[in-house]
Amino acid sequence: MKTFALTAAALLIAALPALAGCSNTQYAAKPEGGAAPSAGGTGIKQEIRANLSGEPYTLDPAIATDNTSFKVINSLYEGLYTFDKKGEVVPGSAAKVDISPDGKTYTFTLRDNLKWSNGKPVTAKDFEYSWKRVLNPETAATNAFYLYYIKGAEEYNKGKGTADQVKATAKDDKTFVVELNAPAKFFPKVAVNPVFLPVYQPTVDANKNWAAEAKDIVSNGAYIASKWEHNNSLILEKNDNYWNKDDVTMQTIHYKMIGDQNTYYQMFKSGELDLIDTLPIDVLAQEKSNKDFISQSDYSTYVYTFNVMQKPFTNAKIRRAFALAIDREAIVNNVSKGGQKPAYGLVAEGIKTPAGKDFREERPPYLKFDATEAKKLLAEGLKEENWATLPPVTLKYNTQDGHKKIAEALQAMFKENLGVDVKLENQEWKTYIDTFKHSNFQLARMSWSGTFLDPLALLDLYLGGSPNNQTKWVNPKYDELLTQGKIEQNENKRFEILHQAEDVFMQDLPVIPIYFASKNYLKSKNFEIPFVPNQEPNLRWAKKLS
Question: Which of 24, 119, 146, 184 has its CA 20 to 30 A from that of 468?
């Protein structure tokens, strides 16, 4: 095993390609206890007011699957890896990472001064406990599959093995050893997923509802949960026990929970909020000329998900008929209007292949707008099922003006291009997440963001055994290709395998891709905020200037 000490001063310039490289990569770390950053040099109180658009579903990293929850969770906790100011993957709670010559064993040495927000030390045993808690079938962690790279993880999670067989082991308080099933050069990028974050065992074991109230949450990241008024507001305060607290410029983050876009837009315009995203569609055109308007790419795909066990979407031709009846160009140009791009495949734009192309460009579009073909397929599907008429269809979406307008546009397109009347049903976010998780729908809206820039980040969601696969669709060929894609060491071959997996997916079509997303923000002119493509702005490095 080759050992690499984490050199001082280089953490925040470590390059992502290096992290994805061979086993002798050196991971550099920022020195502990560095100089405190300037907060504008004026003694201005560093606090910012932002919006969550709704109540977080949970602040338990093991359970959360939605971006609303992740915004808060990523401020409260820190894993072995984290993101730097440039959005690159770098060591977080780890001071040193040793990788075996065969690329299968990672030995993490924790920093000397890691503490929980209550002052207790963070140890390697906390990571072992937390990762195995995610894999415990009783936890029912939807994102547990991200840990399946680890030996014994999938078997334990599926009830075919034990916790002791999971090769993620604390050798002592500072040493955490992880053995992978096969070399995975991109494992550091996988391990920044919130499901890898540590939680404080004494609190978790003592209180099953520990993540529901601010006073019960013990964190190890840049912030603590100071005050939580449910469905109203959440206040985060800088964590004085965080090892890298001197690098945190923002003292206080005030989150409001306003779901209505027009309301929080007006609050921004009146100075009650300093940062908002997902602007009302009707104001996008006028705000694009605002110097404080920020639009950037977002590695995510906006989809409508079929439940393939619910009629009429048990029939593949009927699923394809609905997909071909949608004019995506009209949606992005006339409805969403936020810089989105029509999606004719699942994997979003933004991934460079070994050939230097975007992954999306290496395959022709899987879909098109074709009302004639859509009607033909619908008729064929009805005949195959011996249905004289199509069973009633309800399209579900979570309450938000933008989602409502897209749902209404789809409803009109299905009527015009298929002759089908579709009912719309909306639910508030927290209720909707439960509805979606239990596959209690025929056709439902969702956006999927990749936690790392690789096709696997999106393709993995639809593994047959994944609890994140609410489509109920299973294809053994697809699962086999993804398994191959995780162990293939030749990058050209690996990307071709992943293309083949997407081929299978888009042939069966368990979802309808609508568009590849972009994120639009308005920020107050009084703030400097770092914006990184494909990531939420990390407010710990925001600065209030006046």
Answer: 184
